């Protein structure tokens, strides 16, 4: 089963999860420590307030409430983290009691959620200190106000948290870059394997800028590709040698048949003609009829021998230029099927071709024309044989088409297999396809060539 995620994606998802959890834990620790710091600061502030109140009571007995309240408010104004409110009672009513003001009415740049997280809970917060000793002048109420401490913690913690996030992002990018760089040869390996499958055995991977583990894989791939290329080269050499031996054997057999059997058959024909003349002279109709039958059988045998010789070795390739031999091959079928348009174009240049290449092209063309007559009712048959030259190589291209395809499937018989083997043995490539929408069969073969000096 192929996973839908890549290795890079899986590793980076794991890294992301670890970094997110780490950042969350770090932020929770920062908030927890900051909250404890706020609580400790508020406790120390309350202790300081109580000491100031006791000191003011000792230094200024409550003889004059207004002086006492003024000096006490002045002393408390220097203490941080508190809010002092002085309530003046109205006639007939006691001093009013209000809830603690929030943040002393000041605006803050600290986010509200941070203030909420660091502020003590109402159940845990220290209650306001209410001094009734200055009554009837008024009521002095001291409320806790941790905003100053929260702002300080925010200013101290924000750079640390941002630095932490920056380090996590840099770490994530570093891991991602290193992982992509380390695994980049795998993508090249996949592409190279596809090229090997397509027959491009000269494909190689670059061995520089890879990790040690993947470097071993790259070396193994290059060795495999080299062995495959050497094996194919050796196989092509053997196949070409086999074709050469086969053609040489066919030439030898054809020569033997021609040299040995043809004289005997000719002699039989001569003797039969003499017998026929003698039989006619003696008016022996029975002898003349038998001689005529023997003469007919001998003629048929001679024709069979000629056909066999042509199959073993195309005599046209020995007697005619290559282009003329191909045109004569097409002319045979043109004369037999005049209702079909047989189009032929051969342009292979003036340089002589290798004998094996000429025989292979002749045989493939012959097989294409024969299959057209046997399996297709074509009205148009086009054959193109041309030479091409590139910077690094030269070759022969054979393109064959006919419009007699009535099926959606190609039957791969011995004819197509034989053509495939011949072309492949010489290092070439043969492809064919059906186009049912236009009832057309197309075959294309490419052969690398080595021009004879």
Automatic annotation (TrEMBL):
Stretches that traverse the bilayer: 7-31, 158-179
Keywords assigned: Kinase, Membrane, Phosphoprotein, Transferase, Transmembrane, Transmembrane helix, Two-component regulatory system
A Pfam family assignment: HAMP
Domain HAMP: 180-233
Cross-referenced InterPro entries: HAMP_dom, HATPase_C_sf, Sensor_HK_TwoCompSys, Sig_transdc_His_kin_sub3_dim/P
GO cellular component: membrane
Main location: membrane
Keyword presence, Transmembrane: yes
Gene Ontology MF terms in the entry: phosphorelay sensor kinase activity; protein dimerization activity
Protein name: HAMP domain-containing protein
SUPFAM superfamilies for the chain: ATPase domain of HSP90 chaperone/DNA topoisomerase II/histidine kinase (SSF55874), HAMP domain-like (SSF158472)
Domain of life: Bacteria
